Amino acid sequence: MTGIESATGGFGSGGNALGRDNYLNHERGIKSWLLTRDHKRIGVMYLVVILSSFFLGGIFAELIRTKLLTPGNSALMKADTYNQMFTLHGAIMIFLFVIPGIPASLGNFVLPLMLGAKDVAFPRLNLASFYLWVGGATLALVSMVTGAVDTGWTFYTPYSTTTNTNVILMVAGVFVLGFSSIFTGLNFVVTIHKLRPAGMTWFRMPLFLWGIYGTAIIQIMATPVLGITLLLLIAERALGIGIFDPALGGDPVLFQHFFWFYSHPAVYIMILPAMGVISELVSVFSRKHIFGYTFIAMSSIAIAVLSFLVWGHHMFVAGQSTLSSMIFSFLTFMVAIPSAVKVFNWLATMYKGSIWLATPMLYVLSFLFLFGIGGLTGLFLGALAVDVHLHDTYFVVAHFHYVMFGGTVIAFLGGLHYWWPKMFGRMYSEFWGRIGALLVFVGFNTTFFTQFVMGSHGAPRRSYHYQPQFEAYHRLSTIGAYILGVGFVVIAVYLIHSLLRGRPAPANPWGGATLEWQASSPPPHDNFASTPAVGDPYDVEAWTWDGAVGGFVRRTPAEQPAGS
Amino acid sequence: MAAGTTGEGTVAGARTHRVAHHFDNAEQQFESGKLGMWIFLATEILLFGGLFCAYAVYRSNHPEVFIYAHRFLDKTLGAINTAVLICSSFTMALAVRAAQLGRRRQLVGLLGATVALAACFLGIKGLEYEKKWKEGLLWGAHFHAKLAPAPPALPQTLPPVPAAAGEERSLIPPAAIGPAGLARPGQPAVAEGPEGPPHDVQVFFAVYFLMTGLHGVHVIIGMALLSWMMVRAGRGEFSPGYLTPVDLTGLYWHLVDLIWIFLFPLLYLIR
Hints:
The structure holds two protein chains of two kinds.
Chain A: H1 2-10, H2 30-34, H3 39-67, H4 79-114, H5 123-145, H6 159-162, H7 167-194, H8 207-239, H9 252-285, H10 293-306, H11 322-350, H12 359-382, H13 384-390, H14 394-424, H15 430-456, H16 471-501, E1 543-546, E2 551-554
Antiparallel strand pairs in A: 1-2
Chain B: H1 26-61, H2 63-69, H3 75-101, H4 104-135, H5 202-234, H6 244-268
Helix pairs in contact in B: 1-2, 1-5, 1-6, 3-4, 3-6, 4-5, 5-6
C-alpha cells in the first residue's frame, strides 16, 4: 500500500499530480506524443481522433435528420447525396467510432492500470495500431472527397460492385482499420494473460477486463473474415474476379454471409466493453460490492461465443433456407440469456445500495433503460414472422441505435466521465454533467423511440422520400436529434472547460477499489512506483470519503462511505 | 503454449539487457511474444478460412466445374512446389536450432537457404501462372480460354420440370434434381459430360487465383521477414538467450507452408 499512502499522505491535494511529474508532462513536445509507446498517451490520442470521428458522424446524422423534416425533395441535399450521407454516417460511426471507441481509448488507458502493470504487452504494436487506425481513417476520408460511397455501410453486392463511387478506397480503409482492431485485441489478450500481477487470478480481475477480454477474442476471430471479404470485394471491383457476380457463376448472398460473419460479432465488439464499463460503475456508485461477479464474467464469454452463431438473422429475407433461419432465430434468442444475466446482476447490485447519482451513474441508469429496450426489441427482429414485416424499416434503425447508442455510446460517456479525473487530473462541473446526461437521454429517446413507432407502421429505412403520413414522426425525431446535438455541445464545452479550469482531482474521486485509483491523477509515466497490492476489485465499501484529502481513502471496513 | 519452449532453449536464464521495462523478466517477455504470435497465426488461418469457405461453397455449387477444370493445373509442378516448401520448413526448423545453439554462420546460411527455396517456389508458381495467362485460363470476366471441343448446341441447365407441373402451381422452384423417374424424358440430366465443358469454368480459376495469390503474397512477406532476420543474424543480434524474432518468423513460415499443404490437394488433386 505504499502507493496510496504516499499519494494521499505525501501530497496536498489528495493524490493530484498535475503540478508534478505525470504522464502528460513526463516528456514534452509534439514528437514525444506522436512517437510515444505509453499506453496512456496512446489512449488519449485515440480519444481525440475517435471523438473527432464521432463529431463528423454526428454532423452527417444531423444533416440527414434535417433533410427528413420534409417528405419530398429538399434543397439541403439531393437523393444521391442523401445516400452518401447515410452511408458515411454509418461507416464512420461503426468503423471509426463505435468499434474502436471503448477498447482503444478507455481500454488502452485503463487496462494496464487495472492490472497494476506498467504498459500493455506490446507497446510498439499498440502505437502501430493507432497509426493503422489513422491510415485507415485517412483512406476512408479520401474516398469521401473522391466519390463518397452510397452503398450503405454494409457494402452489399451487387450495389457495391456496380456503383460508380469510390468503393475500393473506402473498403481498403476499412480493411486497414480491421488490422488496427486485430492488433489492439491481440495486445489486450496477451496483456491480460501474461501481465496480471501476483494475486490477481482470473476471477479477481475487474469486470471491465473481462469485457475487454471477450471483445478482444471477437476482434481476433471475426475481423480476419471481414478482411478477406473486403479483399474479395476489392478483387471483384478491380479485377472482375466474379466471386459475387451471378453472371459469372458467383453468389452475391455469399457476400452477406461473409460480411455478417464479422459484422454481427462486431456488434458485440461494440457492446461487451460497454457492459464492462457498466459493471465497474454500477458497483462504485451504489457503494456496494458487485452482485454475481462470476455470472457477469462468464456471461461476457457466453456472449462472445454466441455472437459467432447468429449472423444468419440478417438474412431472414435474403433467400436463406427456412431451416437455417429457424436455427439462427433460436440462437438469436439465446443471446438474450447472458445479456439478461448481466442486467439482473446490475439491478441486484443497486438493490439496497446507497446510490450516488453522480454523472457517471446517470449514464448507468440511462444504459439500463435504453439497453433494456434495445435488447428486447432485438427479440422482435429475431422472430422470423415479425422480422418479415419489420425488415428494413425504421424499427431496425431504432433497435440498433438503442443498442449501439443507448448501450455503447452511453456507457462510453459514463466511462469517460468516470475516468476523466484519472486521465486529466481535473474534475468537470457536476451540475453541467448532469444537465448533459439528461439532455442526451431525452434527446435520444425523442429521436429513436419515435422511429420504433414509425417503423412498426412500415416506414422503410434509408429512403429519401417518404409517405406524408410519417411526417409528424420524422419531425419529432428530428427535434430529438437537435436536443441530442445540444446535449453533446454542452458535454463538449464543460469537458474542455474542465481541462483548463477544472478543480484538481484527487487520486480516488469516486471511491473505486480497482487498482487504477491507487495511482495519482493523472498517473505518472510508469503508473506505479511498485506493483500495487491486489485486493478485491469491488471492495468499494472499504473506501470512504475524506474531506481533508478531497477524495476517497481506504479506511477500516466498519465505517460507512459518505455519498455526494 | 503447446509448442512453446523447445527442449534446449534455456530462455529463463536469458540475458536481461533486452527485457522491456514493463516485463518482469525475459521469460515473461518471450512467453508474451510467443502467445502474441500464435494469436496472430490464428487470425491468418481465419483470413484464409474465408477463402476455404468460398472454395467449399463453390465446389458444392459447381462440382462438375471443379472436376473438369482442375485438370488444367499441372500436378507435377504442384508436387515439386510442395516438396520445395516442405524442404524450406525443414531448413527453417534447422535455422531455429542453430540460433538456439548460438551458431551464427549456420543460422545465416540456413535462413538464406529458406529464402532461396521460397524464391524457387515463387518461380515455379510464376511458370504456372504464365501458362494459365497464355491459355486464357483466368478468373471471372477475364476468362477467355477456348475449351475444346465446343459444346454441342446449347447445354441445357434449366431445372428439370417435375412431372406434375401442369396441375400444381407452386412459387417454390424444385430444390434439386429429382429422381430420374419423375423428370420428363428427353432432357439431359446434367450439362456435364465428355461432349463439352461445363458452364462457369471461370469460377474454378477465380478460386484458384485468389487462394494461390493470397498464399503467394504471404510467401513474399515471409521472404522479406526471413531476409531481415538474416541481416540481424549477420550482425550477431541473436544468442541462445535471445532468439524470439527468429523463432516467431519460423512459426510464421511454417504456417505459410502448412496452408500450401492444404491448397495443393484441394486444387490440384480433386480426382
